[in-house]
Design goal:
The protein has about 180 residues and is α+β, with helices and mostly antiparallel strands. It contains one helix and eight strands. It has a domain at about 70-175. It has one helix at about 1-80; strands spanning about 90, 95-100, 120-125, 130-135, 135-140, 145-150, 160-165, 170-175.
Length: about 180
């Protein structure tokens, strides 16, 4: 019987020792878990911030490239209809006359064949680091703007207008001026 009592006392002491260390052990576990979660959280936050900055840089680059490409297409569109004899070039200026619309628009109460295409003057200017078309801002932060006339390889009579526009990147093109005149 003494053995049974001693065994119960011994097991009680052992359980109380385990229970007394149990809260300290779980506090260490909780502290370790908090530290691990904090380290993972800081890593995820830094990665997210880096991805946001990279996304902003890519977005800015794409926007700048898109604006330059749109400007290039718009200028080509305007200059295709230019009257070659009306081109006037200066260092930072290009003037020309182009048809307002290649399709005839009949006027009210007049015969259709009395309609005539209208020539409209256009002005492309490079001033203060910006490109203006007919006094409207076309592209800002322009580093270089260059235009000059060249002969085309196929014919010396046909001229091409070389245009180069640069901001951080450059786009250049040659617009062939066919010399098509519309006379009615």
């Amino acid at each position: 019987m003494l053995k049974v009592i001693l065994a119960k006392v011994y097991s009680y002491k052992r359980r109380s020792k385990i229970q007394s260390f149990s809260p300290a052990f779980s506090m260490l576990e909780a502290l370790l878990a908090i530290i691990v979660i904090a380290v993972i959280g800081v890593g995820v936050t830094k990665s997210t911030i880096a991805l946001k900055l990279q996304n902003a840089a890519i977005s800015l680059h794409t926007t700048e490239q898109g604006r330059l490409a749109q400007t290039h297409m718009l200028l080509s569109n305007y200059l295709v209809d230019a009257l070659p004899t009306s081109l006037k070039q200066d260092l930072n200026r290009l003037e020309w006359e182009g048809y307002e619309d290649l399709y005839l628009k009949p006027q009210a109460n007049k015969p259709f064949l009395d309609s005539k295409p209208i020539l409209v003057p256009h002005l492309l200017e490079f001033k203060k680091g910006s490109l203006f078309l007919d006094d409207a801002l076309l592209l800002s932060n322009v580093a270089k703007f260059e235009t000059h006339l060249e002969s085309t390889p196929l014919s010396n009579d046909t001229k091409a207008l070389y245009i180069e526009v640069c901001n951080k990147f450059c786009l250049s093109d040659r617009v062939v001026l066919h010399g098509v005149y519309i006379e009615l």
